[in-house]
Amino acid sequence: MPTGPQHDRPQQRGRQLRPVLPAPRRQRVEARADRTMDRPAAAVWREIADFPALAAWHPGIASSTAHPDDPYLRELVTTDGTRLTETLLSSDDTRMIQEYAFTSHPFPAVDHRGRIEVRPEGGTRCSVTWTATFRPLGPDGAALAAQFEDGVFEPGLEALATRGRDVPDRS
C-alpha cells in the first residue's frame, strides 16, 4: 500500500474527514380524529366521495376545485388564504374509504397521506375516522399533528355531523 502525503487520507484543516452517512429517516407521525354521527353512512360518504367538493362541507375551505387537466387533483384555498393541492389516491365506495396525499402545500412535512373512513353504526348512525400520516421536517411533529387534528379534522367532522340533518337520505 502506498504511503506518503499524496496517499494519506484526505484532511480538512488538520482533521480527518468522516464518511458522509445518510441522515436518519424521520419517524412518521399520525394525526387522527373520530366522530360518531346521527346520519346514515351512505349520506356522509356521498359528501366525502365527491373529492373536488370539499368546500361544500368543510368550514375551513373557502374553495375546492378539480384541477382542469387532472380530475384526481383538487386545488384548495383555505379561509385564511392558504393554497394547497391534493391528489386522490383511492376511493372505495363499497368500503367507504378515501385516501389522498398532498401534492403541494406550505406545511413542514413530507410524505403526507390522508385517509377518511366511514363506518355504519346501525340504523341512521355512522362513525367517521380521519387520519393523516406524515414525516415532519421540523422538530415538533406532535404540534403539527395537533394542528391538523384541531384545525382541519375536528371542524370538518363537526360540519359533516351537523350537515344535512334536514335533507332526506336517498340511499
What amount of the residues lies in strands? 35-45%
* CATH architectural grouping: 2-Layer Sandwich
CATH topology, what is it called? Answer: Alpha-D-Glucose-1,6-Bisphosphate, Chain A, domain 4
How many β-strand stretches? 9
Region (Disordered): 1-35
Protein name: Polyketide cyclase
Biased composition (Basic and acidic residues): 1-11
Pfam families: Polyketide_cyc2
Question: Main attributes?
Answer:
171 residues; alpha+beta; Alpha-D-Glucose-1,6-Bisphosphate, Chain A, domain 4; 7-stranded antiparallel sheet; two-stranded antiparallel sheet; 18% helix; globular; disordered N terminus; disordered C terminus; START-like_dom_sf; Polyketide_cyclase/dehydratase; Polyketide cyclase
Structure description:
There is one protein chain. The protein has helices spanning 41-49, 141-162, and strands at 11-12, 15-16, 29-37, 61-67, 70-78, 83-92, 97-104, 109-120, 126-136. It starts with 10 loop residues before the first strand and ends in a 9-residue tail after the last helix. The chain is globular and about 70 Å long. A hairpin with a 4-residue loop joins strand 7 (97-104) and strand 8 (109-120). The protein is an alpha+beta fold. Pfam families: Polyketide_cyc2. Residues 1-35 are annotated as: Disordered. This is Polyketide cyclase.
Give a concise summary.
The protein has a single domain, classed as START domain (Alpha-D-Glucose-1,6-Bisphosphate, Chain A, domain 4). It is 18% helix and 41% strand. The chain has helices at residues 41-49, 141-162, and strands spanning 11-12, 15-16, 29-37, 61-67, 70-78, 83-92, 97-104, 109-120, 126-136.
